[in-house]
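Input set for joint prediction.
Command: fold jointly, output tokens.
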Amino acid sequence: MKCGRFERWMLLAGSGELPPRKRARLKSHLATCPRCAAYREDVELILETAGRGLPQADPGPGVLAAVRREARNAASRPRRKTLAAGFPPAMRRRRLVALAAAMLICAAVWHMTARRDAPPDIVVSETSRHILEKELLPAADEVRELTIINWDERTLVERVSDLMLLDDVSPAERELMILDGFAI
Amino acid sequence: MNDKTFPTMKENDAELLNQYRTGNAAALEQIVERYRRSLFGFILNMTGNREEANDIFQETWFRAIKNIHKYRHDNLAGWLFKIARNCIIDRSRSGKKTVSLDSPGRTGASLGDTVPCEGVSPSAEAGNRETGRKIADAVAALPARQREVFLLRMEGGLPFRDIAAIQRVSINTALARMQYALAKLRHELKDEYTMAGSMRT
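tokens >
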């Protein structure tokens, strides 16, 4: 193995990031490689010298006072709470994924349910059209829950069962509606 | 900053952050105090200008305080140094002038001369001042990215994993930058560290 890698290992050993096994290999290499041993000594001295020699100073007292003041103000300031704020980022991500999955499942279930519950699309016969236009729709209060979509060609009726409760629909008319699929 | 203190510091940071989030402002003051020297040292050595370093130090903490409730990681030191680095970059992009340690201040003395050196006797201070100036010059002459790695390691005591994350490079790139920086310093500071070595033995 080239010495360059061991030079990096020396740096990692200095920062406490070198795993124990590699640390042992580094130690045995240093015992047999005078070049690396000299390099390590130089690096230690450079770091030590630089550590002592680099300009060290404190921030100005006014700056520290301003930071402390800001910290106090921010602590006393009311803050908005978000739903996700109480969770660590990893958990938030998991929650988002779970939420997205749940929404997808809900959408799929709704779609399937809506298709099943929807009354069948029906072709409106002249008779049924007449009943709806002339007799049922004017009684607005009673048919307010009736939803008719796409009146001209095909009609989708919601709450069809409500029609069965209407008093002003005669048995004959109801028969017609049943035939046309309105009151099933 | 000793590496062995890192886990304990992280635990303490987390505890202090929790206290601050529940309204105890004094807890954040302790955090500010804990990172005061290292953070300011990093900024000062990156900018080479005390006034600018003061501004950036303040801006760093203001940004940190503003976003502290969103912070949920367990590496406060890395986060703070990253903010400081961003502030330095923002400032350099804004075109504000950066002066070196050797630029004369109001008193005519350079910043390198006026920076206090703690725990040193007056007789040793003159010699150390000269050494300090050479070291500061050598560090300031490093390419920006190498200088950043060197100072994040030396002043911030950050592990290379965090330095790599801050610079958004691989850990091998961060290590290589440190190697280059050390090679240059080894050449520039040969007299200084040889003397330090002879004093040690």
